[in-house]
Amino acid sequence: MKKGRALSLLSGGLDSLLATRLIMDQGIEVVGLHFITPFFGYQKKGQEARYRERWRALHGIDTRIIDVSDEYLRILRNPRYGYGKNFNPCVDCKIFLFSRARDMMAEEKADFLVSGEVLGQRPMSQRRDTMRIVERDSGTEGFLLRPLCARFMKPTRAELEGIVDREKLLAITGRGRKPQMELAERMGIRHYPAPAGGCLLTDPEMAERIRKFFNQSPQATINEVLLLQVGRHFQLSEDVHLVVGRREEENERLMELSREGDTLLRVHGIPGPLGLLRGRTDAEGLRLAGSIVARYSKAKDQDRVEVHYGEAGEAFSSPLFVTPASEEQIAGLRF
Ligand code: SF4
Fold first, then answer.
1. Could you give the C-alpha distances from 185 to 59, 181, 332, in angstroms and in order?
2. Does ligand 1 lie within 6 Å of residue 79's CB atom?
3. What are residue 131's phi and psi, to 5 degrees?
4. Cα 79 to ligand 1 centroid, rounded to whole Å
5. How many CA atoms lie within 13 A of 227 on its CB side?
6. pLDDT by residue (tens digit) across 268-287?
7. Nearest protein Cα to ligand 1, atom 3
8. H or E element: which one contains 64?
9. Which of 47, 209, 213, 311 is the most exposed, having the fewest neighbouring CB atoms within 10 Å of its CB?
């Protein structure tokens, strides 16, 4: 066989890992591309070296972790092919990621691209007609190889040119997971996440919150999207949001995500959550925020609770006395 080099889109799930391994097992050099956005893979941000090392140690794959958040937000605002069941723009997402991979081919001296897609596995993005659209619109026709279902697809250039042995590619279709599990077993792959577990845009509750926010604020930023993923959310008025941490890690995360102009609140001297108030508000709004924060603290049954607040990055130096909010008061404010 001719020597070759491929770029493989690694989602972090089993299928793309199997597809990558199938090509590597043919003696072809493969570089994994792992794209991250605030909706998938973002926990790797700042930890790229550790994850690369992990993939190399576990699977022998050299990987690039690439943050495409800004461009992704633009796509999410107005996807040409619409959304799936939740807020997932799967067809546009694939077109975008495959285009990015295609753009990297020259620099990485790659002959072709690899994807772990399986014909018929997903209702929207893995139908044959959609797969063709994705190839056409991403400019990857002829050099996007899907090793798991390749025997059902037209031979790609890598097969025709003798870089890849088509006989060793597979013919998996449909939604079942059994063939993939068996293949993983044969390949000795034990560490992999549950299927489709990685994209928040397919999580009904989270996707709904994100959709609602985008409808109100089409220019939503990365920071705002990350904030939507933490704690309990309340909308106090059109552009005032309160986020209340549910656990210590969430309180810490809120602290990290707070920015100039935000107000942070917490109950004084009694264990309780951190509240992050964003948007211009008056004394009444601040009091309401304090009463919600108090409701989720150990002082929730007291009549009068002392809450301290301050600007993000500054001390909690201003006191406020509130009565913890009742369920009726907050029911209509949940976001
Ligand atoms: S599930 Fe999420 S990551 Fe996967 S194609 Fe759809 S939008 Fe993209």
1. 14, 6, 50
2. no
3. -60, -35
4. 12
5. 24
6. 999 999 999 999 999 999 99
7. 199
8. strand 62-67
9. 47
Centroid of ligand 1 to alpha carbon of 117 (angstroms): 12
Q: Determine if ligand 1 sits within 6 Å of the CB of residue 115.
A: no
Q: Which helix (H) or strand (E) holds 329?
A: helix 327-331
Cβ of 4 closer than 6 Å to ligand 1, yes or no, is no
User: What is the tens place of the pLDDT at every residue in 13-53?
Assistant: 999 999 999 999 999 999 999 999 999 999 999 999 999 99
33 pocket-lining for ligand 1 (C-beta < 6 Å): no
Residue 333 burial (CB count, 10 A): 16
The pLDDT of 245-252, averaged and rounded, is: 97
In angstroms, what is the span from residue 199 Cα to ligand 1's centroid? 6
Average pLDDT of the residues of the chain: 95
Segment 143-202, tens digit of pLDDT: 999 999 999 999 999 999 999 999 999 999 998 899 999 999 999 998 777 655 589 999
Domains within the chain, CATH numbers bracketed: 5-198 (3.40.50.620), 230-331 (no CATH)
Half-sphere exposure of residue 4, counting CA atoms within 13 Å on the CB side? 25
- 242 within ligand 1 shell (Cβ under 6 A): no
For atom 4 of ligand 1, the residue with the nearest CA is: 90
Residue to substitute in 9, 40, 75 for testing ligand 1 pocket (most ligand atoms within 8 angstroms of CB): 40
* Mean pLDDT value across residues 218-239: 96
Is the CB of residue 157 less than 8 Å from the CB of residue 135?
Answer: no
Could you tell me the distance, in angstroms and rounded to a whole number, from the CA of residue 39 to the centre of ligand 1?
9
